[in-house]
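BUG: 3D viewer hangs when loading the predicted structure for this chain

Environment: internal workstation, default settings.
Expected: structure renders.
Actual: progress bar stalls at 90%.

Input used:
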Amino acid sequence: MRLAHDSHLAYCTNIHRGEDWKETFAGLERYTLEVRQQVCPADSPYAIGLRLSAKAAKELSDPTTLLQFQRWLEKHNCYVFTINGFPYGSFHDTRVKEQVYAPDWQTTERLHYTNQLFEILAQLLPSGVSGSVSTVPCSFKDFIDNSAQVDAIRKNLISCVDHIAKLSERHGCDLHLGLEPEPLGFLETTEEALNFFETIHRAAPNSDLIRQHLGINYDTCHMAIQYEEPRVSLNLLRAHDIRLSKLHLSSALKVKPTPTVQTRLADFIDTVYLHQVVARSSDGNLTRYTDLDQALDSARDQTEADEEWRIHFHVPLHTKPDGELRTTKDHLLGVLDALAEDPSMCSHLEFETYTWEVLPAAMKTPNVVSQLTAEYDWCLNALAERGLNQYSIPE
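Structure tokens produced before the viewer hung:
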């Protein structure tokens, strides 16, 4: 939905199954319209954070199909301002794990897919609204073992930026791509992001285009897992003139891994998604585990328990900690506080708790619509406390 300071809030439709356009559109009709009815006045435009797989994007690119979708958006007073281009292929009910990063930015497949997403977005954007696409943090760390691979990543990203710039000029709009740092991604910390942008500026023929069209998709769950302080991270990105393309509003699990808690964490292991763990010892050292089951296995052999674990498991925003299982909501609130002080920092806000299907029963609401409406309520209340959620209906 359209908010104060010309900002936009949506939930990401990656929470719904959508491996082709037919299934994606069915989710919009079945769930998104019901959520819209509950959270947004009928006479206010309702924003959609669209997730498109490569297959769905190819199918939606058909001119007739795209025109039909544009008419559907107009009929229901909806608009698309952002697309999640992180998962290329299947994302539900199958093993995703580290394959969510593939194909990565070494490949022309990722380049062509992302270019196609921007071609779709440029045609869907309302006049005067900027458009963002979020993408993988270049690659997964374990996929990269030589400098030639990193050179290929930079080359493809520079090519994509050139394509985005030409589309922006042709359509008279502002389009930007956000690399999304994530635990064990090629980019996972603010420092790694700063270093990478420094190298891509040196490699690019036009640094101004990089500044305008390539930035960071700042996921508050991912950055909290790294034990980063929101103001420090945000200030560093801005001091280095790196665009904040989008803010993902999300929370991770945060626990003291006692034997009792470790038993409870077994409920969060699943065969679909990676749940990376960053453990902090009493002396402040960080240890990273690729998945939760590995962290639990390692803990059984430790003589001294870690002080804290932060776990990449997206927890619904309205979930209240129960004492043993806490969340990183404090990081999210710190980001919103910074945004309230300078709303120009970022105009794209999206929440994405895609873990709906694998949530433990105790955390689940009766259905996905009730979860989404509860998360909207939480977001709008948090924004209201900071003067950021007033509706702004365009002329």
